[in-house]
Structures are given as structure tokens and as C-alpha cells.
Amino acid sequence: MFEIITPLFLSLIVGGTFIGIIFGAIPGMTATMAVAVCLPLTYSLGLENGLALLLGLYVGGISGGLVPAILLGIPGTPSSITTTFDGYPLAQKGEGEKALRIGIVASFVGGLVSLFVLWLFAPTLADFAIKFSYVEKFLIIFFALTVMAALSSDMLIGIFSGVLGIFIALIGTYDISSGGNGKMRLIPPGTEYWLETGFSLLPVLIGLFGLAAILEQAELGVPRGFNKDEVKVGGKSTFSFSVFRGQIVNLVRSSGIGTFVGILPGVGGSAASILAYSNAKTFSRHPETFGKGEPAGIIASESGNNGLTGGALVPLLSLGIPGDSTTALLIGAFTLQGIQVGPLFIGNNPDTWNAMIFAMLIANIAMFVMMYVAIRYFALVVTIPKHILFPVILMMCVIGAYTINYGIMFDVWTLLIFGIGGWLFVKLRLEVAPFIIGFILGPSAEVYFVKSLESFGTLSIFFTKSWIAMVLWVLIIGSILGSVVLSRRAKGQPDGV
Amino acid sequence: MGNLTEVTIDFERSHLVFPTIIAVVLGLLGLAILIRDRRRIAGSGAYWRTTFAQMDRMRFFGTLGLTLAYFSLMVPVGDIWPNTGMGFLICSIPFVFLSGLLFMHDRTLRQIAPLAIVSVVAPTFVWWLFTYPFFLTLP
Amino acid sequence: MTFTRRTLLAAVSTAAILAQPIAAAAQELPRNVRMVIGSKSTGGDTYQNSAIVADALSEHLGINIKVDAVGASAAFKALDRDSRGTTIMIFHDQSYLGHLYGREGYDDPFATYAIGPTVAINPGNAYLVPADSPYQSMEDILTAAENGEQVRVAIQPGGVSEIGFSAMKNAAAVRSPGSEANIVAVNTGSQSDKNQAMWDGLADVINGSIQANEQFTQLEEGDEKGMRFVWITARPATLEQAPEAGMGDTDRAALMQYASPETSVTLDGSEDFTFDKEFFFLFNKEMDPAIIDQIDTALTEIFAEGAIQDRQKASFFIPNFLPSDEAKAHLEQKRDTYSKVIAEISGES
């Protein structure tokens, strides 16, 4: 395989990772978009070199999302939503650099763990993944949804917000390509033309987190931002590797969850960090600090979403089925070169397989080095005057919304609708975090729930399907009990809620 | 298990199953909130009055107005030169400049000059990047 | 299509863009064309096909063509809005099958749009059974239905994935009226869902493709993921043009065993049912016909050169250029056949 490793191969990985980080770091741009944009270039590069570029973009794009999530409270990609919960509060205390370092280290560990799993266990895990039918997938989504309760400061309102998120996500067509019947529902009369396919995730996300935040600032008269002196960079940063002491379990668990969610086709990339985050909170000894700048929250979220990278390649390379939207594009790279991906891929193409593993390894290392070096410059983003930063962010949000579905103007209007919606949410004391989680997971929850009943014809199937289902129920109940106990403790009186 | 747990779902109507369940749950939760927080909700008129009284109305509604104009003009302007992204470019430059001006506190030349440069350079660079290397469609 | 060509084009055309707003009396394709496609995936067959054609056309005509994977409903809307030739569309048989199956958002394309040339065929549409299935062939499946055995077929309803299923029902009805009721649909979504339905034991037969499922037919015996082809819907004349090596470890001769005439799913008792997924252009009805002529002429020249065929074949597509008039007649005929099949089975069951 060593003849594959040429200077071109290496520089494509590093260059891809660099571009990926930039895509991930710009609100509204995603890893998926980076891969989509560069896919045509791979035709002339040949398979291994093309994959080197794309895998670099993938790893970089997933990782770059933590930068705006931490510094601006705007998730750069859907999978870094949970990073905002603890990263942004830290940044607001002037500790953005510390948060960035934690996130980058966690991303690196997550990436390596999942790569290791991919390398050693891909075919075995793929065989395990196909044991997950509609029923088990629904329970996984349900488990991820229970995090809504843990994330809300007022449980009743939090759950209401989350269910509202699911409700809004159901607007439009019951998607035929994920198993629906292609019929429309919940569309207000007269809006069918625009709402036929519902609201897209990315514009909703950057509306709620990006535009809404800017509106809030405008309402307050755009208060002056940080001075250079207030931001703790370089010698003043309080980061040391001791934050990771006691976090080994969290790191490994979150990376593992991320990897596993990646392996399950159709569960979706954003669920990885959500599940990792909720587990970290449930098992934490001081769960009340989550959401207020808890390093463990950043660790869980970032190792979870980078764990996805290796995981999502497992079903792609051992079943020919993509694990998330970005790896779905990688199939294109293979077919462009006339290479089949399926259960025989690894055995038939050992060189390509080794080259991919190697490329992922280099991409993770390159990501770590580049981001770690660039931290002090990233951290200074918050010192850019807001009257320059905000308009440019808005413009980038518009471009992201417009290009995410290759040129649909309604996505830009969605941005505005949810920007105003997000501002109203805060005023009405509804909670944005559970809402967005409901919105992301709603459509898969629907398909897997309805399909389970359609296929098995009984509600009891959710309990009797398999031992996997039973394990998931234990986790679900644990998570719900955990949130209830937590909310009582927070109220300081046993009869709360 | 018995018949209680048995469900038959007609595929043709399956698009209504989950929305119905969610709507019911949402309604119940909403009702619970209404009952629990009735006092706060009753007092929300005053809450909104103070919100609007205290807000920086010029900046808030200015932002909304500019954004609305920006979004509305992009497509018609772009339609004059189809598929070139000109709508984005031509609308973004004044939008970035005007909203920057709106957010600015001391509107001195020293402050305005960098903004003016950014408002020309940033959209132009982004437009170039998306139109040529990335080969994506802009309005 | 390379980075440098784009960049060069960029440098030259940037200046020219502002100087020439859309020429109102467009006799030909404008300088910047947007090609929308009926798929949201930039990794799928529609996108690949469209990209190949867009590249060839833009090089040949010296213009810019961007392929936008906006999906069927957004693509139709974009086409509706623009009669200047700045928006054109490529899609496949789904465009009329969606209408025939009564899916929301699908109008009759022959009435609503101008049909342009066909460019290629994806011959991959196939049906598979588990490796350990009692059914060895379509004959077994149809006989089982005749004997009152229920056969569950996993499909994605409302289009290309369902048409072969409808044909099976139709064939069952032709062989033994009433037996079509024993062939039932398991409605699923993507390829991964269909495979999963088989592994979960929810389906006896699944719709799939040569490209995506061939490796599953080559697994070791005893692997629970194993599958076998039972039917490939392509016309024999189409499959004959596939590369001789076929796909993976299945050569063309082996593939042809599963297609008509060796594997027969009858249409009316005498002829076999066949289905080729064909990619073709759609235009706004009001668009200047001169532009269609221009595209026809350009494609005729491109296909005469022969380079495009190599690219299509490398991605397992069968080149199939028909100029607009012939394409329209051909597709209308296909539509009529399938509409009869669909009417037959929905009238009886």
C-alpha cells in the first residue's frame, strides 16, 4: 500500500482538512456541503487521491463546527448543537480559548477511537447493525429525545418546546424516500407551494441560533463586545490537560456512542452528539453544572460528533449503505471511479481500504495540529467589532441557507421565520435546545414508530422485539428518572414538578 | 398480550398517525402550562409593554426591515442577470454596509472606513468563491 | 471538468456578465444555464448522468451549466417559473410514473412541459430474494402466488421502484386472474430500508439494483445478508450494450439470465414487460423551440464524437441519445404501456 502514499496524497488530506475546518467553522456551511462541492474534482484525481481529499474535508468539516458553536453560540454544523450548551457559556466568561482547547482534544480522541473501531471491527459491527430494525431504531431515537427533559430548565416547558419541535418538523410531505406515503399534512391552506417539503434543518438551525441571537443583540442596542484584554488567550488561558482528569470514561463512552450512532444507517449524524451529551449528563456526579459551562459537556459533544466520522464509514464500506448524509456523497466518489461499495468492498480493494484508514488517521492528526495552532486566532473572533461581525455572519447565513439545497429561496425565508421565532421563543420563555432536538429527531421518530406498527401490527412489539430493545428501555427509563431526580434536586424540594 | 395492543395502520393514511399523536401530546402539555402558569400568562400584557418600551427599537426594527428588504430584493435583482449570482452580490454590499452602520455606536470616519471596505470585499469574495471554485448557484 | 477550466472561464466571463443582461430574443441557450434535477442527491445516478451531459454541453457550446440537485418538486417549480431557457431540467421516468401513481406534486409532464432528448439509461433496476429463499425464479414467485401463497415485495411506492412490482401483479393476473392479490407491497423507503426489510424477514422479495446489490449476491453461503437476483427489468437490447464484464463478479451473460426473454414477466400473455430507467431533458413549455433544436444539434454532435459514451459506460450507464421528437414519441409510448398496467391492477384489486 505504500506506493499510494505520495506527497500529493498527503497534501490532499491536509488541504482537505483545512478547507473542511473552514467550511465547518462558518455558520451555515457544513461538512456535507464541503464534500458535495469538491466531489466533481475527484474525478480527475483518481480514487485514492480523491478519497484523501474528501475524507480530509469530512473530518475537518465535522471538527470545524465547534469554533462558532463555542465562540458565537451558533452551531457551525447540526452536529455541534450540543457544543453550544456549555462552550458558549464558557466563552461568555472570556474562557473561549479554554473551551476550544477542550473541544479540539475531545474531537481528536473521538476521531481516533472511531477510526480504530472502523479499522478493526467494520464487518462485524455491520452485521450487528443490521439487527436494528424499525423498532430498535425508534427506541434509539426515543432515547435521544429523552434528553429534552434533561436539557430544560423548566421541565414542563422544556418538554412542550421539544414536542413543538417535533410537530413543526412534521409539517410538509411524509417523505416517501424514507418510507412515508408522500402525502402532505399540517400545511396551513394556501402555503402548499412553499411548505410542500417542509422546513429544512439547516436554515431552521441558523435562524434559531444565528439570526435570533443577532436580533436579541439589536434589541439590546448592540452592546460593545469584548476587548482584547478581556479574552483570556495565550498565557492568560486557564486551560490545562487536568480538565480531562476524571473524564476518561466520558471520553471513551461519548466516542463510542458517536461511533455506534454512525454505524446505524438512518439514525442521523446529529443524534450522535445529542446522545453522548445526555449520557454524560445522566452519569455525571454534578449534572446541574451542565448547560452553564461544564467542560464535560463539551467533551461529550465533540468526542461524540467526531466519533461519527469513523462510524458512518462502517456501513458504507461493509454494506454499501451510507451512515450519514456526508458519507452518502462518498458513494458518488466510488461510483464515479467505477468502484462498487458493498459487503465485498474491503476484501476486494485492500489497498483502497488501507489508504482510507491511513487518510483518516492523517486527517485527524492534521485537524488537531491545525486547529490547536489556530486557537488563539479563532479566539480573537469575538474581539471583531459587532457592527462588522454581525452583518457578515448574516450574509454567510443567507448563503448557507440558499445553497444547502442547491438554490431554494424558501430556505432563506425559513431563516428569517425561525430567526424571529427564536427571538420570540426566548421572550415567551420557551426553550430553544429541546425544540431543536425535537425538530431534528422528529421525522425519524415518526418513520420508525409508524413503520414498526405497520410491520408488526402491535404496540407490544416495542417491548418484545429483542434483547436490544430491552436494553434500550433500561436506558430510556434511566434517563427519564435521572432528569426527574435532577429537576427535584434543582428545586430543592421533594414535591416539585 | 390481547387485542388491546393491536394496531392496524393503513399505509394510505399513515401520514396522519404520528402528527395526531404529537398534536394531542402538545395540546395536553400546553393545557398543563396554561393551568400552572396562569398568573404569569395573565400578566403577559405588561411584560410585552415593558419589553417594547425598553428595547432599542431603531436597531431591532431596523435589523428586521433591512433583512426583509435584503431577502425580498435578492431574487428580482438576480433575475436581471440569471444564474450569475448578481442578485446576491448587488444586494449584499448595501446590506452589510447599512446594517453595520445601524449597529455602530460612534459613527466616525475611523469606524466607517473599515466597515465600507468589509462591505465591499466580503460579499465580492464570497460571491467569487461560490460562483467559480465551488460552482454553486446564488440568487 | 476541472478546476482550472472553471477558473479560466471565470476570468473571461466575469467581465462579460454585467455587460450583457439576458438577451430577450434568445435564439439559443443563454451564457449561464441552471440545470435542475429531480433528485436531491449529488451522489446518485440522476446527478452523475446530468453532470456528464452538462459537462459535455457546456464544453461544446462554450457556456456555463450548473447542475443543482434540488429534488423533483423544487425542480418542477423552478422550471415553471422560467421560460427563458436559463433553467432546464433532467430527470427520468419517475416524472411521468409519479403522475401515473397519483403522487402529490406530479403533473403530467407531457402536458405541462416540453420533452427534450433522452441521454442515457440506467439498466440496473432489479428484484432480489434472500439467498436461502425457496423461490429460484420469477416463475416460482408467480406460481406461488397462483397457489395462494402470499409474496411480500419491498418497494418504495409511487414510481420507478413500484413499476416492476405492478408488472408482477399484472403478470399474476394474466396467468391466473385473482392471484395478483397474493403479491403484496411492503412500503419502505431507501435501498437500505429495503435491504433491512429483507433481513428483518418482513419481505420475501425486494426491489434493488445491479449496482447496489450485486455484492450481496456474491457472499459466502450461510451469510445471512446473502441475496440472489430473480429479475432485471431492463430490455435485452439495453443489457446487451452493458460492458461485457458486467458488474463486480457477475458478467453480462449472467445478468442477462435474469432479464427478458430468459426471465419472463409477461405483459399481456405474449410480450414481456420491460422497464429501462431513462434520463431525459424537460423544458418549460413556453421556452423558445430554437433552444431545443440547439440542444438536439449539440448532443447529436457530441454523441457522434463518442467521448461521452465512454464516460457513461464507465459509470455503468447505457448511452441512449434520442433527439427530442423521437424521445417524446418513445416516452409517450412507454407511458401508455405502464398506464395500462397500473390501470389493470388497480381496477381489479
UniProtKB/TrEMBL annotation, chain A:
Outline the extent of the DUF112 domain. 11-437
One Pfam family matching this protein: TctA
Q: Which keywords accompany this UniProt record?
A: Membrane, Transmembrane, Transmembrane helix
Looking at the UniProt entry, the stretches that span the membrane are 12-39, 51-74, 99-122, 134-151, 157-176, 197-215, 257-277, 352-375, 387-404, 410-426, 433-450, 462-486
User: Is Kinase tagged as a keyword?
Assistant: no
Name this protein carries in UniProt = Membrane protein
From TrEMBL, chain B:
Q: Which UniProt keywords apply?
A: Membrane, Transmembrane, Transmembrane helix
Pfam families recorded for this chain? TctB
Residue ranges of the TM segments:
16-35, 58-78, 84-103, 115-135
Q: InterPro entries given for it?
A: DUF1468
The answer, when asked if Membrane is one of the entry's keywords, is: yes
* Domain DUF1468 intervals: 17-139
Q: Which domain of life is it from?
A: Bacteria
Give the protein's recorded name. DUF1468 domain-containing protein
- The source organism is Marinibacterium profundimaris
From TrEMBL, chain C:
Q: Which UniProt keywords apply?
A: Signal
InterPro entries according to UniProt: Bug_dom1
Signal peptide region: 1-25
Report what the protein is called. ABC transporter substrate-binding protein
Q: Which species is this UniProt entry from? A: Marinibacterium profundimaris
